[in-house]
Predict the 3D structure of the following.
Amino acid sequence: MADARARQSGVEELIRRLHEEGVERGEKEQARIVSRAQSEAAMLLDSARAQAAEIVAAARVQADADRRSAREAVRLAHRDALLQLRQDLEALFGQLVRRLVKERLEQRDALAGIVDEVARSAIACGLRGAVGIELAGPHSDPEPSAPDVLDAHVSALVVELLTCGIEMQVARSNSAGVRVRLEAGTVEVDISPDSVAAMLLDRLLPRYRSLLQEDARP
């Protein structure tokens, strides 16, 4: 009887010990799993943070590059717009000068003044008989005569020039102006709207450009 109780007690003790050992092993395994999971989670978190930092840094670099590119594009667009505006203004200025010169040379008093100055200079230089003056002006008459194109002042000047040995002719032309020929055409000076405007623009455009540049400064 005592032996049976002893065996029963031993079995119970064995069961208790096995239970305790199983619980202890389970707790240790659980702790190991939790520790491993925490370690892996920490590693994943560190990796994610590093990747996020790299992404943010790359985004900042790209944003800086995009800003620089945008500023450069704006600068180039501004420069091109200014250049185009200057070219347009210069072209407009040239058209205005040519139009004003043409309108002025089509006025008879202006032509008379030019012819008068040319003739006086020729006479003063002793070029009598060596100078020919051709006066051109727009007209509709297919066979214009001197009085039709020249006013009284120029007509009187023609008479005076002839007495000095200077030949003057009226040319049929669609553009006003004066052409002076020296020594049978060896030297020719063209005082036409285009030539006068070109001469004026050679002098005026540099100054006009400098004024545009001054106005464009901030």
Observations:
- Residues 139-150 have pLDDT under 50 and may be disordered.
- The first strand starts at residue 131 and ends at 137.
- The helical segments are 2-105, 108-124, 146-149, 152-163, 193-216.
- DSSP finds five helices and four strands in the chain.
